[in-house]
Structure formats: C-alpha cells, structure tokens
Task: inverse folding
C-alpha cells in the first residue's frame, strides 16, 4: 500500500506530492486529465503573490506581512480566516527557494504588468512551465503519476480515509490529499447555482470557463454529501468579462478585453449600465464578469475610438472596426439609432480634463447616469472599434473547510488522514474577491502543508497497521 | 522600402524590388503572434517576445524579422497554454521555421534561384557532391593520375594550386555576393536604424555565444521533451567553431603559400594542419550530434518542411570533414588523388549550396539579432493601460 495518495494534478497537488515524497512517503498522484491537458487551472496562471521585507531577485521594494494581510482583508471583505491567511502570507516569503529547487524559474514582471512588480513573482514561461517543472521533479523523485484517472468518490472507515475510487478501481493509501479544484467546469452545476433570472434566462448557459474542463467538482460534491464541512458561497464565482468569441474552455488570460476603461460599455439595448472609469482596470476587471452576466442575453459591448489604440493590452481577437458609429452598431448587431443616441449623450457629458491613464484623472462626465468618473473622453475619432463581451468563469469559491494542518473537517472534527489543498479549500482564505497571484500562493503553501501533514499521518497509520 | 528609397532606387536606374506576396506561412505567424501578444507569458525566454510586445500589428517585414530572431529553442512551445491540443494550436517555433524558409527564398539573389531552397534536400546535396567528385575524378583518370601517384602528400601535383584557386575562389565569391545582396535587401526592409557600437557588440556576443539557445535561464533549450538541455547549444558551438577553425586553417595556409612562400604539404605539427584537425573533429562531432538531436526532436517541435534543407547542410558539413580526415590519413598512399577528388567535390558542393541552403540561417539570424540590439535601445512607443 502506498503512503500518500494525491487526488488532482495541478499546482497544489504537485506541491503536496513533492513535499510528501521529500518527507520519505511513497506517493501516487491521480490526475483526471490526460497528459496533454494536465495541470488544471495552474497552467493558465503566471505568478504568485509574495510577502518580502526587502527587494529580492525579481521583486522590487518590500511587501510586508501587514500590507499583504490588509490587501486580503479588503478584497475578501473579511471573509477570510486570519490564522490561515497569515500562515499563507508568512510561508509565501519562504517558498520560492523550494520552488526553485524543483525547477521553477522566476522572471521580472511582464510588460504591461508593472503594477505587479512589487508584489508578484512571475514564473518564467507561465504556469504550464511551472507545472512541467514539477512533473519532471516528481518523476525524478519516484512519485507514481497516473493520467486519465478522475476520482469520483472515497471510502472512509471510522472517520478515516481508506481508499479512493477511480471508476471501478479501488486505490488504498494511508493518507490522502484532495487537490482536485473547484466545480467551475461543471456547466450543469453552474446552471443550477445561477438559476433562472427574471427574464426567464439561464444566465450560466452563456458563461465560458476560462480554465480547465476537468474541474467537475464530482469529488467536492461527494465529500460535502458525505458530511465534510463546506466553506464559501456555492453561487459565487470569480468572473471576468471576456471576448464573446472565447472558446468554451481554456481561453485563459488572453481572452480578456482590457479597453473597458478607455471607452464605454453598452448592453444589447445599446445602453450604458455601469461606470467604466470607476478605478484602475486591474482593480476592476473582476467585477465586469458579473455585471455582464446581469445584462440581457449576458452580453455587453466595449466600444472605443482610435484614441485608445495602443493604450491597452492587445486583444486576442481583432475588434469590429468601422468608420461610423452606425456601421459599428450594425457589425455588432446593435440598434444603430440607440447606439448613436447613447454615444451622443455620453460625448456631450464629457467634461474637458487632463487625460492621464496612469492616474485617476479628472476626465469625468457631468449629469450622466451612470456616470463615467475617470478617463471619460468623447468617442469622436474614427475608426471606432467594438468588442462583444460575455462572462468568463475563472474559479468557484465553494470548498472544504480545513484547519492549519489542511485537515478536512467532519462534524466539527478534523480528519486524521484526509487533507485538502488548492482551489478546493482556497475559500478558507479567500471567501470572496481576488487579488492577482493569491490563488497560486494559497495552492503552493497549502499544497506543501497538506503534503507534509499527509506524510506524517501516513506514518501514524503505518504504526496503527503494525499494532 | 520607403517611397523615398524606392524613388532613389528607380532614379538610379534599377527597378524597385517588389515585395513578395504574403503567404500562408506569414499569415500563420501573424495569427499566432496576435495570441502571444495578448498573453506574453514567454517574455523571459528569448528576444522574440519582447520584440513582439513593442508592436500591435505584424506587417510582412516584421514577421520576417521576428522569424529570423527565433532560434527554434522550443521553450515557448512546451510552456504554451494554447499549444495543441488547444484549439488555438499555437506553435511559435514551427510557424517561425516556415517563414524563415520563405525569407531565404524571397531574399535569394538572383531571385529565380530562390526556388532552389525548396529543392535543396539531402539527395540534391549528395548527388551534387558526388557528381562534382566524379567529374574531378574523371578528369584525373583521363590524365592517368587518379591512382598511385607517388606524390607523398603533395596535392598540387594532382591539382595545381592555381587550378584549385580558380575552381574555388569564384564559387566562394559568388556565395558571399549572393548572401550579401540577399541580407542587404532584408536589412533594408526591416529598417532597423543605424547600429551603434554597443548594439553591434551585443549582437555579436549574442550570436557567438548562442545566447538565445540558453532558454532564458541558462539551462538550455528543449529537444525531445519539456526538459531543458544544453546539447544543441554546445553541438552548434562545436560545429560553428569547427567550421571557423577549418576556415582559419585555409587562411593560414594561404598566408604560408603567398606571404612566406611555404608550399604544401605541411607537416602534421604545422599550424594549418593542427587547425584543420581541430576544426575537422568539430565538424565531425557537431553535425553528427545535431543530426541525432533533430531526429529525436519532439514531433510538435519539428518542421518537416525545412528538415530536408537542414539535413542537407548538416550532411555536407559532416562529409567535408570526413573526406578531409580520410585524405589527411592517406595522403601518402596510392589513394590520395582519388580521396582528394572526393574531398574537393564535397567542399565545392558545400560552397555551391551555401547561398541557397541552411547556411543562410546564420546570416539572416545575425541581421535580426543586430536589429533587436538596435531596437531595444529605442524608446517603446506603446503605453499600455495597465502600466
């Protein structure tokens, strides 16, 4: 019998497997995806948020524990556990040396992401390069890796993990780490969680999944049904407004549309519905998924003019382009007169100001509802460009409650040998909201904690077996 | 070419060179780079992605520049979240390799010879080498000097020195001229600006150290898997510096001959022979290793279109060295004249195919590296929102 069984194949699963193996345990990993799709959502990530008190290799200035904690408190609105969060934060200052030993390389923040150069360490080549490095290290250390092995249930006896079932196959182990992600790829579950709106639509039917198709949440549901304590709101998900042409799964980072704050956004009635200039785009991009999801048909249209070109990250799909607003409306399938009316009203409301996209400038609308409070400049310079938007789900918040040893809880008591790491427990630290790179920090730190806990538990179980 | 340049060109009496029509290869690079430019995860690997990030659109000349800046290391392919089986099917190394083949053909001089690239496969190279060797051998046979000449290593007794010079100098000069004109047009089209001293030094260092085969982290590039290895960088060094040593041996030999009146054959311990032996070993080990690596390369990382051209060049380098070694070993035997004919045939085939084969990669790569060294010193005109 192996000591530690890891269910999952992304960053947290790999960190758990490597740590358990380093602690001397025999380890097997069950990845639901085939080899070419391995790594879950981790392959779409690019950095990890790190506490540091002085400048480090790729990190500028300092990002002290308290500031990191305050940032987390702010984005979660208090839906976090201070103990677990501070563990994550402190460990984040130490993990990178370990990551390097397993082949991860870091690079300075990418062009277009200078705002992250202080807080986030970027993986050279992104998350898939990191995942590849960890798999190579795991193979070298003798971790047994199996692909195409989705686990649908586990067997417990007297509150202890005994075995996992991958289809009909029963795999026993002395301890287990669940790192199988959220349920965002499960369209049926999303449909049910989002329900039907007042227009009779099922909004989730229009959602794209930005990451893997393998996070079906089957094991998550099974564990919750088996009495595991849950955490997080099942109707909540991290959602971004993405290009409506994005693929159903795995659109990743490149399908985001970054020109929202430079123009206006209208719904399918060609009406504006939210302040596009409320705050800097990196701080606001994550609210637009939900905003679009609330619009009729879950569609919206970002419209800019020639002045915006070259001021935002280039889009993956070229926008519709026209020399008049009427033409643009036709190309986007909007009512021509309605769009012109909206733009004329917006243009008339733009107050003359000193445009500066690098600061919260004084270009705002006057007497317009909803207002645009910064970077409001008339749309008057052809060609005009339009991008159709739809909601893209990054991850779900529903997960398993854990303690500082990453143990899964049943009826208020921690399991002796069942642990959880990564997206499946991230809700303990990040009950809502998001800040760049924090998902990978939680996954790395709790992956390592869960791996160490499982290795230790497996030794205890081995003694029990012997007794 | 700018309108002004075109006018000047026309006024000088030469017809303006028409830009070749864009092809599927260029369209594919433009498609892929639009995706890459919205992702940018690979910026740390090499120069291609930082150069890409300075652009929003990719006109033809820029595509050829970026394609020749790409060293085909494979790091971005294995790290790509959008690589096959993803429906975006992003494969930067393959897309770039296909455009490079087009660069060599489009910029070939004289233009009709550009088609030779498509035909310059292994078979053509070997047949050419063999027929040249046969031709030389036949000439010797007619003279009755193909076998058993008691020349004790004196090659000039078989082929007089003047004859060899007249055989090789024009072929070599033509290769230099054809490549020079081709890369000149390329340089004008990518309009890089004036190279300063620092930019030139940096480009030279990047070329001579194969900086962009280091993977960005120094551990090397990808071959058969996502693991990094320095094998290609080292084998390329062995090949290139082997070639350079052989070339140096020829130059020193020429100096001996003309400047100091020292006539071949030279002793085993003489400078030209020592340089030739060292270079020859490099040209045996390097090409053999590169062939082996290319045969083991990951299927997605291979471009089957340009493989014949790559292999023809590798084979000719290897055969040049092999026949040279055989000649040196048996230069005092009855087989010397025959071996000499074979060696000269291979060398001539190598030079003849140089402007229309894989050799061109070094010339266009250096031009692209120099452009990058110039470009990255210029201010970036894009101010992206999130900065």
Result:
């Amino acid at each position: 019998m192996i000591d530690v069984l890891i269910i999952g194949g992304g960053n947290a699963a790999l960190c758990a497997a490597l740590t358990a193996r380093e602690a001397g345990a025999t380890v097997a990993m069950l990845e639901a995806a085939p080899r070419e799709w391995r790594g879950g959502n981790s392959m779409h990530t690019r950095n990890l948020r790190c506490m540091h008190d002085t400048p480090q290799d790729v990190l500028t200035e300092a990002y002290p524990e308290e500031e990191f904690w305050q940032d987390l408190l702010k984005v979660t609105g208090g839906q976090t556990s201070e103990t677990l969060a501070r563990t994550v934060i402190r460990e984040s200052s130490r993990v990178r040396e370990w990551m390097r030993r397993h082949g991860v390389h870091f690079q300075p923040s990418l062009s277009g992401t200078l705002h992250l150069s202080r807080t986030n360490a970027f993986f050279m080549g992104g998350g898939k390069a990191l995942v590849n490095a960890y798999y190579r290290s795991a193979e070298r250390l003798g971790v047994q890796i199996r692909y195409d092995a989705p686990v649908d249930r586990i067997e417990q006896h007297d509150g202890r993990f005994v075995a996992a079932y991958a289809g009909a196959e029963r795999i026993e182990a002395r301890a287990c780490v669940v790192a199988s992600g959220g349920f965002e790829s499960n369209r049926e579950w999303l449909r049910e969680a989002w329900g039907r709106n007042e227009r009779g639509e099922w909004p989730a039917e229009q959602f794209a999944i930005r990451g893997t198709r393998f996070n079906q949440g089957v094991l998550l549901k099974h564990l919750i049904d088996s009495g595991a304590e849950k955490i997080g709101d099942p109707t909540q998900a991290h959602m971004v407004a993405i290009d409506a042409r994005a693929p159903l799964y795995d659109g990743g980072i490149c399908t985001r549309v970054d020109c929202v704050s430079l123009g206006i956004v209208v719904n399918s009635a060609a009406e504006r519905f939210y302040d596009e200039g409320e705050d800097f785009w990196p701080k606001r991009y994550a609210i637009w998924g939900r905003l679009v999801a609330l619009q009729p048909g879950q569609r919206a249209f970002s419209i800019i003019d020639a002045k915006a070109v070259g001021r935002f990250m280039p889009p993956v799909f070229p926008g519709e382009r026209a020399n008049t607003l009427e033409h643009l409306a036709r190309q986007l399938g909007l009512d021509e007169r309605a769009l012109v009316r909206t733009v004329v009203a917006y243009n008339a409301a733009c107050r003359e100001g000193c445009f500066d996209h690098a600061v919260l400038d004084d270009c705002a609308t006057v007497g317009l509802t909803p207002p645009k409070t910064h970077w409001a400049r008339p749309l008057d310079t052809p060609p005009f460009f339009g991008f159709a938007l739809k909601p893209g789900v990054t991850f779900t918040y529903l997960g398993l409650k854990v303690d500082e040893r990453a143990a899964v809880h049943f009826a208020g008591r921690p399991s002796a040998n069942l642990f959880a790491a990564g997206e499946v427990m991230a809700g303990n630290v990040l009950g809502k909201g998001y800040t760049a790179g924090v998902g990978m920090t939680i996954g790395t730190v709790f992956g390592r904690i869960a791996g160490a806990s499982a290795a230790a538990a497996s030794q205890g179980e081995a003694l029990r077996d012997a007794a | 070419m700018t309108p002004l340049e075109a006018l000047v060109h026309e006024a000088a009496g030469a017809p303006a060179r028409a830009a070749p029509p864009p092809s599927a290869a260029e369209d594919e690079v433009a498609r892929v780079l639009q995706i890459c430019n919205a992702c940018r995860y690979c910026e740390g690997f090499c120069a291609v992605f930082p150069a890409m990030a300075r652009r929003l659109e990719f006109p033809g000349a820029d595509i050829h520049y970026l394609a020749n800046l790409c060293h085909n290391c494979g790091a971005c392919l294995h790290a790509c979240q959008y690589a096959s089986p993803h429906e975006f099917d992003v494969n930067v190394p393959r897309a770039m390799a296909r455009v490079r083949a087009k660069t060599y053909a489009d910029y070939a001089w004289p233009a009709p010879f550009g088609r030779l690239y498509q035909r310059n496969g292994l078979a053509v190279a070997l047949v050419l080498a063999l027929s040249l060797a046969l031709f030389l051998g036949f000439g010797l046979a007619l003279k009755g000097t193909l076998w058993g000449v008691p020349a004790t290593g004196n090659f000039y007794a078989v082929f007089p020195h003047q004859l060899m010079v007249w055989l090789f100098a024009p072929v070599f000069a033509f290769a230099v001229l054809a490549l020079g004109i081709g890369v000149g047009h390329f340089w004008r089209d990518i309009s890089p600006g004036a190279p300063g001293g620092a930019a030139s030094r940096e480009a030279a260092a990047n070329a001579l150290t194969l900086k962009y085969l280091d993977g960005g982290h120094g551990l090397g590039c990808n071959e058969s898997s996502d693991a990094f290895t320095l094998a290609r960088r080292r084998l390329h060094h062995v090949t290139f510096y082997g070639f350079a040593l052989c070339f140096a041996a020829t130059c020193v030999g020429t100096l001996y001959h003309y400047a100091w009146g020292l006539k071949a054959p030279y002793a085993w311990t003489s400078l030209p022979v020592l340089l030739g032996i060292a270079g020859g070993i490099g040209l045996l080990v390097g090409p053999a290793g590169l062939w082996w690596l290319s045969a083991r390369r990951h299927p997605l990382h291979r471009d089957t279109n340009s493989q014949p051209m790559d292999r023809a060049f590798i084979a000719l380098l290897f055969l040049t060295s092999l026949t040279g070694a055989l000649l040196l070993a048996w230069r005092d035997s009855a087989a010397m004249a025959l071996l000499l004919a074979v060696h000269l045939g291979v060398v001539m085939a190598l030079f003849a195919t140089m402007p229309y084969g894989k050799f061109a990669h070094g010339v266009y790569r250096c031009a692209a590296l120099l452009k990058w060294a110039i470009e990255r010193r210029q201010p970036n005109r894009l101010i992206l929102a999130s900065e």
